Amino acid sequence: MKTSGRAPHGPNVIAILFLLGAIALAVIAYLPSQRLIAPIAILAGGLVLTQSPKVAQQWERGIVLRLGRFVGLRGPGLFWVVPFVDRVSSWIDQRTITTSFAAEQTLTSDTVPVNVDAVLFWMVHDAQKAALEVQDYSQAVSWAAQTALRDIIGRTPLADLLRGREQIEADLQQLIDSRSNPWGVTVSSVEMRDVVIPVALQDAMSREAQASREKQARIILGQAEMEIAHSFEEAAKSYMHNPTALHLRAMNMLYEGLKEKGALMLIPSSAVESMGMGGLMGAAALQQSTLTGGASGGDFKKEG
User: Fold this and answer.
1) When comparing pLDDT for 273 and 142, which is higher?
2) From 224's CA, which of 1, 99, 116, 253 has a CA 20 to 30 Å away?
C-alpha cells in the first residue's frame, strides 16, 4: 500500500531572520564591553524566539497542543506559538490523496480465488478529527480500504466482479466512507485497476465464450433459413396465379446461367416442355455449336 506523504517542516524564513538578528545584536553588544554575558543572553533569547514562528502551506493545517491539550488549528500561512509551551503535534494535508491497495488470493462468493488491485481517492475534511481520533489516519484509511475490498469480493460472484465494476466501486466507496468518516476522512472515489483470475479458469471461460458464439451463430443461421423459406412461400403464392411471371422468371434464370462461359445447367425435361423453352434451348445450343465449329475450322485452315 502506498500513500502520498508530506515533507517534514524545517526552519522557516522568519525563524532564520530572528536568529540572524540575535547574532547581530550579540556582536554589537560584545564589541564595546568585550564581555560574553550579554551576547550569550541575546543568543539564548534569539534561539527561543526562533521556536515561535511557524508557517503552514496553503493545503496544510497545524494541530497545536498547549501542555498536551488541544488548543486549535493553525494555518495556512504564518502563525505563532508559545515556545516550549505550545507544540505543533502534526501537520494535516487536506489535498486529495491517492492510495493503492490490493486483495490477493481472495475467494469470491462462488469460491474462485482472484487478485484485485484498486486505487482510492480520499481527503481529510476535518483536520481535528484526523489528528485526535486516530493514531495514523493515512495508514488507517489504507487498512480500511483493503479489508473493505476483501469483504466486497467475498460476497460477490465472479461474473458480477468482472462485469459490474461500476456497482462494486460504488459499494466499495460507500463502505470505506462509512468506516473513515469518524476519522474526519471522506472518500471521493474508488477505481478498480485489474482483476486477475487463475490461468485454468481463463481457458475455461474462453472455451465457454467460444461455444456461446457458435450457438449464437447457429441461431442466426436458423433464423435466416426461416426468413428465406417465408420469402419463397410468398413468391410461390404470387407465381401460383400468374404462370406467365413464372415462365419469365425461369427464362431469366436460364439466360443468366448461359451467359457464363463453360457453364453446365441441368434442367428437367418436364420444365422445358411446360414452359415452351425447347426452341430457346435449341437456339442456344446451336449458337454454342456454331461458335465451337467456327473456332475449329479456323484452326484447320490455319494449319493447312
Assistant:
1) 142
2) 253
